[in-house]
Amino acid sequence: MARKQGSHAEITGPRLRQAALRLFARHGFAAVSMRQIAAEVGVQAGALYLYTADKQALLFDLMRDHLEDLLADWSPPDAPAERQLESFVRHHIRYHLDRPDLVFIAYMELRNLDPANFAVIERLRRDYEDQLEAILKRGQAQGVFEVPDTKLATLALIAMLTGVTTWYREGGRLDRAAVEDHYWRMACKAVAAAR
Amino acid sequence: MARKQGSHAEITGPRLRQAALRLFARHGFAAVSMRQIAAEVGVQAGALYLYTADKQALLFDLMRDHLEDLLADWSPPDAPAERQLESFVRHHIRYHLDRPDLVFIAYMELRNLDPANFAVIERLRRDYEDQLEAILKRGQAQGVFEVPDTKLATLALIAMLTGVTTWYREGGRLDRAAVEDHYWRMACKAVAAAR
DNA sequence: GTCTATAATAGGATAGAC
DNA sequence: GTCTATCCTATTATAGAC
């Protein structure tokens, strides 16, 4: 039988990653089959293996690229600790609302990574957390923050901020600027020194 | 061939639920097979269907019972809003640290619920959120809290508190009392009125 | 109440045609 | 570079023996 299409290396690769992203986010890595992904891309299942070593590599590449982007996309401004925190909070919210599917996968599919891949991803996540913890330590040393345990506070703040992805919907009651403002105010108060 | 064991209805049912809980939490609902669960229970796969209608019912029952317990286990004390918030925070942390696997499943496996089951679970989750929001509204009206958007603040606080399950390990650097104290202090400050 | 056996289907991945 | 066809294994769930 004649094949349906010719060669589309440059376009099929990105489309594969996009389809995998969408389907993993909707249904979960384990629940999605290579056949489903292929159908979404518009090719046969066998053809996917021209663009990825296997299903695991598909997941790992999505997560690693996401976290590397997240890290590369922000660095602390040369400013007081409180301004650095504001910058971090606003960037975190913005970045996460822009990429709901990637964020979702990076938090939900850790269990489905091979041990070696898991170690890489955990390292990147730790690097990101360290950026926030450095701000908290600096503010604590300067007396503008009061954070008895900077590691706990870091994880608490990141969990609070990341939670925005579970409820925010475009066109809803609050726009992005308002959401950013509200989270920034709560985060700021949560770590503030008693006055 | 002779069967290995006799009748164990009273014990196999609970063991099935416990095994499913453990495996779903470790590997995810979609990644776990009925054969794996049966092996953990110590029976053959076919025998599981004496205790559950299907795999979906296993997941749904775990989540529903968990959320119903969570709701039944707490009611606001007759006290000022700040004390009610403290009670909620401490109860939430305690309850979640006591049942890490159930909490994990209830947050991670929503995607794997049938639509009808999903609606039931979402209703229960909403009921729980409403309890916290009522406290925030009350404190806001009394002027002890300053929360421009009580719904957003509710979701932000719950996300922050629930995050404890992602890092807390028994026997680690901080004990439960210290963890409770730190989260309570952050939550309290985050919603406090400016003084 | 649990067993073995099996139905019916779907899974990841590969081979070889074109 | 994509196709069809297929290997091999695993899946959920059921049937019928004991």
TrEMBL record, chains A, B:
It comes from the Bacteria. Residues 33-52 bind DNA. GO terms for molecular function: DNA-binding transcription factor activity; transcription cis-regulatory region binding. InterPro entries: Homeodomain-like_sf, HTH-type_TetR-like_transc_reg, HTH_TetR, KstR2_TetR_C, Tet_transcr_reg_TetR-rel_C_sf. Residues 10-70 form the HTH tetR-type domain. Signal peptide: none annotated. Keywords: DNA-binding, Transcription, Transcription regulation. It holds the Pfam family TetR_C_24. Gene3D superfamilies: Tetracycline Repressor, domain 2. This is TetR family transcriptional regulator.
